[in-house]
Amino acid sequence: MKLYKEFLETVQKNDPSLKSKWEVFLYPGFWVLVFYKISRYFYLKKYYFYSRLFMEIGKRVTGIELHPGAIIGKRLFIDHGFGVVIGETAVIGDDVVIYHGVTLGGTGKESGKRHPNIGNRVLIGAGAKILGNINIGDGVKIGANAIILKDVSNNVTAVGIYK
Questions:
Q1: What confidence tens digit (pLDDT) does each residue in 100-117 have?
Q2: C or N terminus of the chain, fewer CB within 10 Å?
Q3: DSSP 3
Q4: Mind listing the pLDDT tens digit for each residue in 114-136?
Q5: Structure confidence by residue, pLDDT tens digits, 26-48
Q6: In sequence order, which residues have a C-beta less than 8 Å from that of residue 32 and are 6 or more positions away?
Q7: What are the Cα distances from residue 99, in Å, to 15, 110, 142?
Q8: Distances (CA, A) of 53 to 9, 29, 33, 68, 79
Q9: Whole-angstrom Cα distance, residue 46 to residue 33?
Q10: What single string gives the DSSP state of each residue in 74-137?
């Protein structure tokens, strides 16, 4: 119930198309958080098969791949959602908005911590790729289809290829 109330408030703040509080149950961004919570529970208990099972079910239901090892802050809003991939060692702050087709992934050249850290109040445009163990500061806006390969300071707008 707490997850629903928090998500409802987040949607009301970020999506002007919301007409009814019941519509929240139609948002894939809501359901991926439900599956994430279940999957994360098993992940932290080291029941990796069950963790992966719920992650895979969630991916098939929502079109969003959110690894249970990722650390998610409060009020994450994934709008539209399809094609979003969030890697195992990603860390996402509070009040982050992510649009469809975003990847928070690795470069394939790292081991251990290999996914980005996203600050608070970050907006990530559709199709953006943020790759590697990099830091995205608070209040950052990342443009649609941007490719981010290096740290981005607080309150910066990053577009194009940022390396």
A1: 999 999 998 888 999 999
A2: N
A3: H
A4: 999 999 999 999 999 999 999 99
A5: 999 999 999 999 999 999 999 99
A6: 58, 62, 64, 66, 78, 81
A7: 12, 26, 11
A8: 29, 18, 15, 11, 24
A9: 19
A10: TT-EESS-TT-EE-TT-EE-SS-EE-TT-EEE--SS--SS-S-EE-SS-EE-TT-EEESS-EE-
Structure tokens at 131: 């790759």
Token reading at 83: 């094609």
Q: Which CATH architecture has domain 2-162?
A: 3 Solenoid (2.160)
Mapping DSSP onto H, E and C, the string for 61-87 reads HHCCEECCCCEECCCCEECCCCCCEEC
The token pair at 141 is 């806006």
Domain boundaries, the chain: 2-162
The letter for the amino acid at 142 is I
Q: Which two tokens stand for residue 93?
A: 């702050």
Distance between CA atoms of 119 and 148, rounded to whole angstroms?
A: 14
Beta sheet of 123-124, edge-to-edge order = 77-78, 97-98, 123-124, 141-142, 157-158
